Each structure stands twice: as structure tokens, then as C-alpha cells.
Amino acid sequence: MNLFDSEHVSRPYRRVDVCILLIAALVAVAVFMIDAFTALDIAVAVFYVVVLLLVASTGSRAAVLSTGAAVAILTLAGFGFSHDTDYSWDAVARCVVSLVAIGTTSLLSLRNLTNTAQLRELIDLLNLTHDAIFVYDLTGSITFWNNGAETLYGWPAEHAIGQHIDKLTQTRFPNSETEIYAALVDRGHWAGELQRVCRDGRHVTVVSRIALWRDAKGKPRAILATSNDITLHKRMEMVLSQRQQELRAAIDTIPGMVWSASNEGEVVFVNRRWEESGMDTGTQGADLWQAIVHPDDLDRMRCDWQISVASGRALDNVSRVRQRDGDYRWMHIAAEPQYDAGGAVRRWYGVNTDIEARKIAEEALKRSEAFLVDAQRLSKTGSIGISPVNGDMLWSSEAYRIFGYEQRPEIEPSLELILARTHPDDRAKVEAAHQYSDAIAPLIDIEYRVLLPDGLLKYVHYVAHLGPPASTDLAYVGALMDITDGRQTQEALARSMAELAHVTRMTTLGELAASIAHEVTQPIAAVVTSGDAALRWLRRDPPKLDEVERSVGQMIKSVKRANEIVRQIRAMAQKRPAPRREVFLDDAVDGMVQLMAPEFQRQGVHCEVHRPIERPRLLADEVQLQQVVINLLMNAMQAMSGLENGPRLIRICTEVLEGREVRLSIQDSGPGIAFEDREQLFRPFFTTKANGMGMGLSICRSIVEAHGGNIGADVASVVGAVFRITLPLYTGPQESRGTAAMNGALSGPRDEGLLRNC
Ligand code: ADP
């Protein structure tokens, strides 16, 4: 039975109590019957004590009092029945002994009930607390289990009592159980955290305090334990600790030195990175900046800090900060203030970010920008970036300079500014090149003139291509080259070339002088002969006028022929360049063939001309074109001059290629071009001739390329050399020109038979 179970005192009689009371009544009746109606000379009434003890076990004070009174009356009544008036002193003494025993037992039972009631009150008080309180003996068997324990662990007292405490609650100790009991025996108490499992399977953490209860002799008797559920507290503590760890880890791993400082500048916290930098925050104190900031940056840093402290505004500074190894690295130092309830700055929270790599990159960028600016200045090439979507522009400083805006670097680049500096005749071209809206052209490539307000004229070449889409923005990346110098040099070169061409023409004419003189004297002699004949026919009587007319016609024809030869020579001899105009290629070729005809005859050269049915037209400087033809004819003739045997043949052929170009081929039957000479054939001053200048082919190439064509020599030709010129056809409206007509007349009827052979 549970020592502390006193519930009998106040609870209504239980079934067992009723049974006990019935047994007590039977015992009382039995004792009375024996006492009153038998002749036993013993103190039978003493057995009423048993009745009293049975009633006392029900825990009722009233029952004990009434039972005590009743059995006393029954004792006296039994005495009366058994002795009537005849009683001895022995019988009286036995009756008194019985009454004393009944009285004493009643008193002791009442006292016992009083003690039990007090104990019950104590137990009720223990049940009032929310703490789990229980008692177990030295074997671990539970002897007391309060309501708090029932609430915490879920087991009712009826179930818990008698169970082994550690088995019932599956206790897990922080250290060995024996150590705990040893401490308990040693100090009499132990406190610590235990893990236990509740009836519903919940795991709880409790703070347990246990005390050893010893008896009067000091012998351990039982253990009193209290438990407080700290599971929630523990969980919160764990969550809090986890968050703190995460926060700390985040602060420690932030790629920067995190710190907090008082408003006076005293550092109160630094993260791990900062600690690793080797700075001793304890000793630096308020003079922190002096300890870590580079002397050259210190004044600026202090000034910024003082401004922030005075104004309460965020700190933003870039300085070199000393590292553990004594080196300095560039850091961005930023801090924000935190205010207290009164609005005063309570603390500064800052982070120093290492920007050394960025600084190095910036320096490199600055250097490369400086190089670029220098290079752009030297090469007179500016760069222009344009967004084709909205027309936003970016100019380099050299582009500003080329456009003459170098004094106004603040102005926003725009197409209007470009047009304002464009030569009026080129504006339409420039505007057209910047029309992106219809279709985004992959490449812009134009040359135009820039006209500055002071009248300075520049030639520029602008090339831009659509950059790779590094971002979502499309952009033209372009180069604006000031080609004024190049253009001037080119013009000077062209002038020199023209001079040289003139010289070579004159040289050629000089070489042909004898033949030409012969060619001119021939029609003049014919005029004289025809004049004489005309005179003779006139002097006849009657004069033969039809013969005179025929002779005069002959004279006119000869004069025209002489005149045309002179015109050709004068044209070849002229110095100033003629404007380009429509030229019939065949006429130009025929003119030169005519000019060369006497020389061909003299040297035994046979010249064949093959040409197509259509008359290909070119937009060209006719004299330059003729110079090319005469150069090639002269070279062909000179190449064949050494031929001992075999025909001396020049074949001239014109072909129209796909209606866009015309090709003129001049082939001779000479020795051809040596393979090793092919590379240098068109180079100036390359000659294999004893008296050659080596400028003929070079001039030919310049002229042909200036006309948008190209010239080449076929070194693999089986017979002699073949030079091929390709030139763009002129497809514009046809002019009516005297020269062309005259040349056509000179060249005679078109040889369509040869055309078919070509
Ligand atoms: P030059 O006639 O003063 O030598 P060119 O520039 O006209 O200068 O010719 C350069 C060289 O090309 C000649 O010296 C010659 O070796 C070669 N060449 C030109 N035309 C022919 C040709 N039709 N056949 C063979 N070699 C030629």
C-alpha cells in the first residue's frame, strides 16, 4: 500500500470500507456475545480493539469516535449481563482494562488520522504545483507521483506507482547514471537535464532536481525528484542558436570585413575575415583608422568619418587598408548608423569590401584608355558607337576632335551634330547611311567631307558594323578615320602618276615619231598630188570639172586623215586630265591601232582586232584608256621584235561579260612572260629591257584600277603573253559625240567575221 495514500480520509466509503465496517460490526457482535453470555473469566472486551482498528482503517474520524463510544458501551453492557450485581474485583479490573484499551486505541487511531490528514494536505499542496514531483525508492520504484508528473509524462499515479522511474520514462542521462547516483549520495542532491519519453511517445527535455531522503539514522531511504519541462525552451534555444550560427556564418563569410563601432569610433565587433587580417581591435580603440588606413588616405578617411559622425549620414570611403602581412589593399569602407529610441546614433555597422582587383582593373582600363586615346590621336581615328534603335551615340575624344567639337566635350553626340559638320554636298549621303529604321544594315562604309566652321575641309572614312549582341542592345561599332592626309597624298600621287603618264606618253610618241611623221606626210603628199591633178583638170579646155571634184574630194579625205592623226597626237600629248565621259572601247582601241599601224607595218607585225556585235561603252578618261592600250601594244611589239622566225601577231579581243563588264585581251606571239617575273610585273621600275623604265604596266594598273577595273597577265599562255583588262560597262544614257563618231569612221567597217572567231 502506498504510504502516502490518504484518500480514505475525505472520500466517501468505498466498497472495501463498507466490507471492513461490516466485518468490524460482526467482530463487535461476536465479542459482545462471548463477553456477555459466556462464563469466560478473561478480558474478552479487549478484542473490541480489533473492531476499532478495523474502523480506523477506513480513515473516518467520526466512525472511530462513534465506534469507540459504542464498543465502550458494549463493554459495560457485557459486564452488566455477565455479572449482574454479583461481580468480583477481578471482573471489574478486566472491564477497566478493556475500557482503557478501547480508549487508548481510539485516541491513537484519532491521532493517526490527524497525522494522515496533515500528510494529505501536504500531498494536495504538492499536487497544486505544475512541477512534476515524484518519489522513488533506492531500487527506482516509484512511490509518489503528483499531478504535475501525470501532466508532464502522461502516466496516471495508479500506473506510475510501483514502476521503475527510468524504465517508465525511458530516461537518458547526460552522463553515466552511476556518476549521478554517486553525486547524489555524496552531496545529497543533483540537478541536470534529462531526456525522457512521455506516455504518448513525445520526447521531452526536463530539468531534473533530485534529493536523497535519509532516515533518522542517516540511512538513504528514498529519492525525491522534481522535473520541469524545458523542451520548448530548449527548442527555441536551439533555433536561436542555429540562427545565431547562421548569422555569424553569413557575417563571417561575407566577402568583406564586417564591423560595428560606437559613435566614438571604438570597434565593438569584427567578423572573422577582419580578425584574420590581423588587426587587434582591443588595443586600437578609437585610433582604429590610424592603425589600419594607409597614411596617404588617412586624412580623407578621418574627414569622411567625422562628417558621418557629425551628420549621422552613411559613411562611404575608399582607402588602402593594412593587411596582416603589412601590405595595403584598396577597400571600399561603407557604414550605416543605427539610432536609439531617442534618435541618437547608437552604433555604426560597416563593411570593408576588398576592391583591389577592381582598382587594378580600373588602373589598367585607364592606361588602356590613355593608350587608345593616344593611338586614336596618332592614327587620327575616332570611334563612334550608335544604337540603331534610338540613335543614341557615343563618341571617343578623337571623334569629337575630328568633328571639331573638342572644345565642347559636354555636348551629347547626335546625328544633327554630325550633319552640322558635314559638307553640304555630302549631307544626303551621310543621312542615307544613318537611316537604320527601314532595315538594319550589317555594315556602313562611307567616305565624305567634313567642313568645319573655320572653312577647314577634311576627308573622313566612316566604317561601322553591327557589333555582336553582347547585351540586348544592338549597336554599331564604328571607326571614323580622318583620311585628309591620305587623300592629299593620294591626290599628289595621282598628279605624279598623271605627270609620269604624260612623260611615258610623250616617250611613246617620241618612239613613234618617225612612223607618225611618215603617216602624216603621206596624206599631205596625197593632198599635193590631188591638188596638182585638180589644177591639171581645171586647165583643160574645157575643164574636166567632174575630175576636179573627185580630186578635191580626195584632198579633203587626205586632210581629214592627217587632221585625225594630229588630233590623236595632240590628245596624247595633252597634260591636263580630261573629265570622264562615255567612251566606246572599240573606238579607243581602233584609234591606237591606227596610230601604231605604220610602226606595225615597219616591224612586220600583223594586228587582228576581234570585237563583239554590241559596242561596249565605258565611263572613262579616253586618253588614259588609250594610253593603256598603246602601252600594251608597244610592249607586245617590243616583245616580238627579237623573233627571228615565226609570225609577229597581235590579237586584240573585246568581250562583254554577263552584261556588266567588258574584257579586253591583248595577246602577242612573243616569248611570253617568265614565271618568276609574274609577281613583280606590275611593280614600278620592274623592267627586263635594256632601255626600259619599268613604269608602263604600273601606270596601266593605276589607270585601270582608277576606272574600277583590274588588269592581269596570263603567264600560263601557250603562245606569247596575254594581258587582260576588265572594266565596268557604262549603261547610262548614250551621248552623241563627234569624237566617237569620228573614231568610228576612222576605224572603218566592223569586222563581224573576226568577231565570230574571237
Ligand atoms: P618597260 O616596258 O619599260 O620594261 P613595262 O612596265 O611596260 O616597262 O614592262 C615591264 C616588263 O614586263 C618588261 O620589261 C617585260 O619584261 C615584261 N613584259 C611586258 N609586256 C610583255 C610582253 N607582251 N611579253 C613579254 N614580256 C612583257
Automatic annotation (TrEMBL):
PAS domain: residues covered: 115-184
Source organism: Paraburkholderia atlantica
EC number(s) from the headed UniProt entry: 2.7.13.3
Keywords, sorted A to Z: Kinase, Membrane, Phosphoprotein, Transferase, Transmembrane, Transmembrane helix
Domain PAC: 190-242, 315-367, 444-495
Single GO term (MF): phosphorelay sensor kinase activity
One Pfam family here: HATPase_c
TM segment ranges: 12-31, 37-55, 62-79
Ranges where the Histidine kinase domain occurs: 515-731
Protein name as annotated: histidine kinase
SUPFAM superfamilies: ATPase domain of HSP90 chaperone/DNA topoisomerase II/histidine kinase, Homodimeric domain of signal transducing histidine kinase, PYP-like sensor domain (PAS domain)
Catalytic activity: ATP + protein L-histidine = ADP + protein N-phospho-L-histidine
Top EC class of this enzyme: transferase
Gene Ontology annotations of biological process type: regulation of DNA-templated transcription
